[in-house]
Amino acid sequence: MTGKAGSILIVDDNKSILTALKLLLGNYFNRVVTLPAPTALVSTLRSEKFDVVLLDMNFSAGINNGNEGLYWLSEVKKESPASQVVLFTAYADIDLAVKAIKKGAVDFVVKPWDNSKLIATLQAAYNLSVSKQEVKQLREIKREFRSEASMFWGDSEAMRTLRQMIEKVAPTDATILIAGENGTGKDMLAREIHALSARRDESLVSVDMGALTETLFESELFGHVKGAFTDARSDRAGKFEVASGGTLFLDEIGNLPYHLQSKLLSVIQSRTVTRVGSNTPVPVDIRLICATNRNLPEMVASGSFREDLFYRINTIHVTLPPLRDRPEDILPLAERFLSQYAARYGKNITAIDRTAAEKLGAYPWYGNIRELQHAVEKAVILCEGERLQAADFVLAQRDETVMPGGVTTLEEMESSLIRRAMDQHKGNLSQVAVQLGITRQTLYNKIKKYNL
């Protein structure tokens, strides 16, 4: 913190220490309150909230095991959970420090203290207090803007079976892995699971692991403190902290590079995060949902995905079927999107013509629900009547010269395109990247992905 900010309560039975600390810390905190004994600690916290509490660990003569400090630490956390507690003792005891941090303390200072180190520790505790308040505010804002869209289950047997499974596991805190092709609605299913859970009143925080750059991985997920790197101008909570109390959805987890998987595994196992530039672990309480369009068991077998991480995220495994395997759901979905986009664009379109419905039913929908949604939106924009006609749907034609027989998924289409371009340019990856309109690094990643 710069200048004076925040409030601190100091509890110590040494009056000389209280006097010295009040003079010292008055230069850094707006309000400094001292107590010579912990007996009035709870009542003081009831009358006023403090950002930081500096708490001595021993008050009774001849007793130096720190148990008093641990007891009063628990009382502080009960009465004022938002206050960050730093423990103060004349005895350096690592085991005691571990116990204290497990009970909620943020740090541990040994007497006699170094002024600069003490100030730095208390400032860090204050910054953590501010950050946690920001996290709380973010969660409240996210609750206000939760999507109102509900899951479309449809009438297919595969979706009925899936729904029965979800209704059983959603109320629990079990970790769930959602598999399925791109566009099948994995993010929508994650929102439905959250809505059916005991955490529904808290936030669902989504992270696209495929779009997360390696350099920002730790900062985005775990947060950072001011000065941790060049652009870290203030403390910032990561996605795990923001999601604490609610659900964290890690989409496209199969795209996470192998060398970063161990860091994610460590946090999932410990349920604590340490911000970049900090040594203080922060507990997080999340329900974890992951999703992927890749075959993780095959990746485990090939050594590109950690087996221990796979089992951590795969407590419950569900698969969303592609749209081509549930043709009875195509028209109801299209009608749902029609209602949505007719209202958005102010058009009086009430139905889908029979010939248009037949056209939709005959199309393979390689892009699944997402492709159908975009097709209906374009049709609504183009339509000049009250019913969508076949001519209003401009659907991509499958090029059999590019897509050999047997190619039925987006991944197979992409792999075939890349292989064909590599053959055409005799392995010149620069020319292949130019033809496909992607960077060389993206091309390298896809070659590795498809083992080309």
Quick synopsis:
This protein is α/β, with parallel strands linked by helices and 452 residues long.
Question: Which stretches are poorly predicted, pLDDT < 50 over at least 5 residues?
Answer: 144-148, 399-407
Largest beta sheet: strand ordering: 2-1-3-4-5
* Strand elements, count: 16
Biggest sheet, open or closed, and with what strands and sense?
5 strands, parallel
Kindly report how far apart the N and C termini lie: 52 Å
Strand content: 5-15%
Shape: elongated
Give the helix tally: 18
Fraction of residues in H or I helices: 40-55%
Mean pLDDT: 84
Classify the secondary structure makeup into a structural class.
alpha/beta
**Rg for CA atoms:** 28 Å
Q: Overview of this structure, please?
A:
With 452 residues, this protein is an alpha/beta fold. Helix content is 45%, strand content 14%. It has a five-stranded parallel β-sheet, sandwiched between helices. A five-stranded parallel β-sheet has the order 7-10-13-6-14. Helix 1 links the parallel strand 1 and strand 2. Helix 2 runs parallel beside helix 3, helix 13 crosses helix 15 and helix 16 packs across helix 17.
Topology:
Elements lengths: L6 E5 L3 H11 L5 E5 L5 H7 L4 E5 L10 H13 L4 E6 L4 H9 L4 E4 L4 H30 L12 H13 L6 E4 L6 H10 L8 E5 L8 H6 E2 L11 E2 L1 H5 L3 E5 L6 H13 L1 E3 L6 E3 L3 E6 L3 H7 L4 H7 L2 E4 L10 H15 L6 E2 L1 H9 L5 H15 L4 E2 L21 H15 L4 H8 L3 H11 L2
Parallel strand pairs: 1-2, 1-3, 3-4, 4-5, 6-13, 6-14, 7-10, 10-13, 15-16
Antiparallel strand pairs: 8-9, 11-12
Helix pairs in contact: 2-3, 13-15, 16-17
